Amino acid sequence: MRTKYLILSVLVLLATSCTKQKTKESIKGKISKQEILKDAKKIPVLNFGTFHMGFTNDENKTEFDEHDKKNQEEVHKIAKLLAEFKPTVIIVETPPSYNEKLQSLYKQYIDNPEMKFKRPDEVELLAYELGSLSNTKRVYGIDYKMSYNYNIGTQIKNEIDSVMHDAYYKNPFAFYDKIEDDRDEKSLLSKLKMMNHDQYLDFLITVNADMLTHVGTKDNFEGADEAAKYYQRNLRMYSNLNRISLNKDDRVFILMGASHTAFFRDFISRSPKYTMVNTFDYLK
After folding, report:
1. Looking at the structure, do residues 13 and 143 belong to the same domain, yes or no?
2. Per-residue DSSP letters for 141-161?
């Protein structure tokens, strides 16, 4: 046992000595502070939420004509703002099984920016344009399809807290002082700014999942179990992100429906691997 402690003490002394030596060399100008801290550097992530600009199965849709020339120009203006982040990798809300096709279409778009898509969505309109402006080489999808029943509160006898549940879903925006139900009245830039604010992202987690914890029959957890499925889907999407080979020189742009952005905001904020940049440093 004494031998083990002696070895540990020697290792600590050696580590301390090396750190002091690096610090001295830094002072002499041989090694910069940035180089000393390089191993601790996290991968910067711009985690950006949007609505689905093309076809979607989502119950709540935002009115947007993806074929309208003016709308496409507005999207490209936003892509130009976000391109200042200079991502090396772009992540989108498509399944990993689609990655080969995703990358192929992206290369075609790089070669021909005037390329037309039959059913363009936020990937073709925003992600591809952003990548083209940033000279980004890699595009990946991380989606994991998984259904859940967010209407369960109206389908069973709710014996947990039907008063709160029903009042909330009758007018959810009444519970937030900085959110207004006027997404379709705003300009595209204003709409996306609103959707990326913390209070709106919190709202999306609550309205899509957490409020279901107020639903259930006696001694059961039907609502919470449905909410857990949505958490599980987002955790699996985050796991798909972690399957992608990244290094500390990468800069990652993530484009997804904003409810996924909300979950990823929470995951990334605790991550020892990633650091989240301020969206509003770019979305001006």
Report:
1. no
2. E--------TTGGGTS---S-
